[in-house]
Specification:
Blueprint (H helix, E strand, L loop, with lengths): L21 H17 L13 H10 L4 H12 L28 H26 L10 H5 L5 H12 L2 H12 L16 H5 L8 H10 L14 H16 L10 H23 E2 L2 E2 L3 H10 L2 H5 L4 H21 L7 H7 L9 H16 L5 H15 L28 H13 L13
Antiparallel strand pairs: 1-2
Helix pairs in contact: 1-2, 1-3, 2-3, 4-7, 6-7, 10-14, 11-12, 11-14, 11-18, 12-17, 16-17, 16-18, 17-18
């Protein structure tokens, strides 16, 4: 069956990148459509996510050939679960009711959201079904499910927004709807109170100030459940209130696009710091599987902002920070020793010199050939940040606010080479066929 021109049209091109060849685009659209009609959004009973579309789009964006896109899909097919009909339809009357969190209803949610996206558009559907009822209780909180599951639904829809693909938005919304209570983000309803969202009572602090508070809070050291299934939920239940307190003054005026852009930049730097600098332990590098997702998901924040009204922008960015910090704490809250990191990864290469551009090209090409489906997503995000933020030359105390400043030691050393340094560590750790680390940073 030919790819749907409505759900999977020719994707919009990637700014700053060489346009993919037509043959690769044809292969991509074929893969996306086949995946949409043939496979379930989860590939096992534990709720592990189908990454077919994520990898295919990352490969396409990195100028992989059509042959490579098809080859990767053939590999991914080996463990997918067949698409199947749902027991009953989803309608406007029951969309927030008893079937939320039930994976059997993925097909019906898919049909429902296909109609919703067609009628309301990307922005209208996301506003109505993700943000409009945030904070009205866990049973109907789609934002809670949207940011759950290690941010996979957010990433899925983010691909749709970045490349103009309705099918990705539809699949991501349906995926969020069937995220069960175990993988929900667990965001307390009070987090979405009007006072939290609209009152700019003080000057905003920088994300590095928030991270310093997190690092210096002795109560956050204890993690009572370090299992992969339970660590995040335990951390949100037991430490969520403290995290909310530490980030209470990370606020912004969403009516000012420049201020929103600054906050997104903070999130990109912050999450790269958590994964990259946090991962540099002893003489090696812990390429943590979980904090890696904080970097890959942050790539899509700009795409969301283009489609959301200001109050929803605030909800998204603040909730995203809360979830990111909770994952960081859940993984053991590794130290952020910037000076040691820069000393261990010292290089005379700058972000914009020809040799670093050649190095990026090698890293990106290598990632498209690697058997792991997350690596091209991560290296694409890091390379993008190197291009956008590569000329940044250090952060100074007081950059963000007059009272608290930026309190992490060594921030004045940070510069645009951070992203290349992290990419090098990832390349060295995963090599040709290496895998991510899952041991965490527990004492």
């Amino acid at each position: 069956m030919a790819p749907s021109t409505d759900l999977f049209p020719i994707p919009t091109s990637v700014p700053g990148a060489q346009p993919p060849v037509p043959e690769a685009t044809t292969a991509l659209r074929s893969v996306l459509w086949d995946n949409h009609t043939r496979w379930h959004i989860f590939h096992n009973d534990r709720g592990f996510h189908n990454h077919v579309a994520h990898r295919a789009l990352a490969l396409w964006a990195l100028n992989a050939s059509g042959e490579r896109i098809r080859e990767a899909y053939a590999s991914d097919n080996a463990y997918q679960r067949p698409f199947h009909a749902s027991p009953a339809p989803i309608t406007e009357g029951n969309v927030f009711e008893e079937h939320l969190g039930d994976r059997q209803y993925y097909a019906s949610y898919l049909m429902f959201f296909e109609s919703a996206v067609r009628d309301l558009g990307f922005a209208g559907a996301i506003e109505r079904y993700i943000f409009a009822r945030a904070g009205e209780g866990k049973a109907i909180s789609m934002l809670d499910r949207f940011l759950g599951g290690l941010l996979h639904a957010m990433t899925h829809v983010g691909y749709g927004l970045e490349f103009g693909l309705a099918g990705m938005v539809v699949e991501g919304l349906a995926q969020a709807a069937v995220h069960d209570d175990v993988v929900c983000a667990g965001i307390p309803d009070v987090f979405f109170s009007p006072g939290e969202l609209t009152e700019l009572q003080s000057k905003s602090v920088h994300i590095f100030t928030v991270l310093a508070r997190i690092l210096h809070d002795p109560d956050l050291q204890t993690i009572g459940d370090t299992s992969e299934e339970g660590m995040y939920g335990w951390t949100m239940r037991n430490h969520g209130a403290s995290v909310m307190k530490h980030m209470a003054d990370w606020i912004f005026d969403a009516s000012d696009p420049r201020e929103v852009g600054r906050k997104i930049e903070e999130l990109c730097w912050g999450n790269t710091l958590l994964f990259g600098v946090g991962g540099r332990t002893g003489e090696g590098f812990n390429a943590d599987f979980f904090t890696m997702h904080l970097v890959t998901s942050s790539l899509f924040l700009h795409s969301y902002i283009k489609h959301l009204i200001p109050p929803s922008q605030v909800r998204l960015l603040r909730a995203y920070l809360l979830v990111s910090l909770t994952w960081y704490i859940a993984r053991g809250r590794p130290a952020l020793d910037i000076m040691r990191f820069y000393s261990a990864t010292s290089s005379s290469i700058t972000s914009s010199c020809p040799s670093s551009i050649h190095e990026w090209s090698a890293f990106l090409t290598s990632s498209t050939l690697h058997p792991d489906d997350h690596l091209p997503k991560l290296q694409r995000a890091l390379e993008h940040y190197a291009r956008v933020y590569g000329e940044r030359c250090g952060f100074q105390v007081g950059d963000a606010d007059e009272d608290g400043g930026i309190d992490i030691e060594g921030v004045e050393t940070l510069d645009g080479t951070l992203f290349l340094r992290v990419a090098r560590l990832v390349e060295g750790r995963l090599g040709r066929e290496g895998t991510w680390d899952r041991c965490g940073f527990y004492e």
